[in-house]
Structure formats: C-alpha cells, structure tokens
Amino acid sequence: MNFLSHYFFDQSSDPYFNTGLVLPDLSRNFCKGHLDLNREFDSPAFIALKNGSITHLAKDKIFHQSEFFRNAQHEVSVLLDQQGQWPRKWFFNHVFTEIVLDRVLMDAHPQLCQSFYDDLKAVDANTVAHFLEVAGVQNHGVFAQRFLKFIEYQFIFDYEHNEKINLALSQLYRRVGIEYEWTTQDHALIQTHLPKIIGIIADQLDNLTKELKTA
After folding, report:
1. What percent of the chain stands above pLDDT 70?
2. C-alpha span between 36 and 108 (Å, rounded)
C-alpha cells in the first residue's frame, strides 16, 4: 500500500504510531535503511513507532496477497499493457494501483490527506531519526531534514489532479533508477483510462476493507 492507504486503514489517536505506519517506506526512501523491529524500546514514542511499523509490514503482506490487489492489477494490465511503451509493466501496474487507491480514498474522505500530514507534523523529526538510529538504520542522519521536506511539499495532494498522477509515476521511475523518457502518447493513454481505473478501484474498496480486517 501507499502512504495514505496505510494511514486510512490503521490510524490511531497517537501521531507517533501513525508515523510508524509509513516509516518503513520513508526510511527506505530517505536513508536506504531497513528497520530492526526485533529490538526492545522503552520510550512511549519509540514503542508507538515500532508498533506502527510492524502494522505497516503486516498489512503490506496481506494487501499484496489480496484478491483486491490481484484484480486491480489485472484490470490495469488489460487496459494499458498492450499500448503502453514504458518498461517494467509489472512494476508500473503495481505502483499505479497503489497510487490510484490513495486517490480513491482522498475522493471519499476529503480531509484524510490533511489529517495525515497534520499527524506527521505533530511528531518530533529528531525523535523519529533517533528511533531509526536505535533500530539499526545506518544513514539515519539525513532523515530529519528529508522528513520535514516531505511534510512541507505535501505531494500526495497532487493525486487529486489526474494529470499530476502521470508526473508522480515518472518521478517514481526516476527515483528507483528506471531510465525511460515518457512520451505524450504515454501520458494520453494513462489519462484516457484513469477515470475507468479510479471507478474500478472505488467499486472494489469494500472488498479490500473486508480482506484487511479479516486476514
């Protein structure tokens, strides 16, 4: 799942737990680090960050094995694979499904994204960076600055605009090192089918909710 989906399905009243819900991805993106969650922590903030991170990993495993995810990726593949020229279509279908899921949640819950960023603002970035240090992340020193920029830019709001989803996809490809020059035809193809894909995922949202709750 993407950032907002983790927050939507498992958020609590504790902003440190809610930050933990996205921390495994933030740590990997900002520090190229993976958390050692087998360690014991004493402070309430660290315990909440650990529990949120554990929840993230558990729900990702359920999500990626879910019927919802398989069906949604299949629908994306049917609509886009034949005409799309971009490489690693399996990767595209995966991340595109997750981004559109965030978009569907934003459409259904207009205050969700702002609540997400408000919770991230409520934690101390240096405390989170210290947690990463204790959890064995080697490059933790760069985390606080990048975390604050992540909050400042609030890029997830871009998902509200169809055309900016194209930009998010191209930036993601660059970030993971996939070289590809996106064409006008690529963007037009995605935009043509995006409304239908949004509808497909919105129609299946209740099924995902059930799968995440019962698994």
Report:
1. 99
2. 35
Tokens of 54: 């554990």
Q: Which amino acid is at 190?
A: I
Task: Write down the pLDDT at residue 139.
Answer: 87
pLDDT tens string 167-183: 999 999 998 999 999 99
* Alpha-carbon torsion, ordered 121, 125, 129, 131, to 10 deg: -60
Task: Show the DSSP H helices in the chain as ranges.
Answer: 3-10, 15-20, 23-31, 44-64, 67-80, 89-108, 112-121, 125-134, 143-153, 162-175, 184-203, 205-214
How many residues in the chain?
Answer: 215
Q: How far apart are CA 195 and CA 215, in angstroms?
A: 30
Tokens 């978009």: give the residue.
Answer: 103
CA separation, residue 197 to residues 74, 139, 193 (Å): 11, 38, 6
| Residues 9, 161, 187, 86, Cα dihedral to 10° | -20
For residue 13, the 8-state DSSP code is S
CB 73 within 8 A of CB 170: no
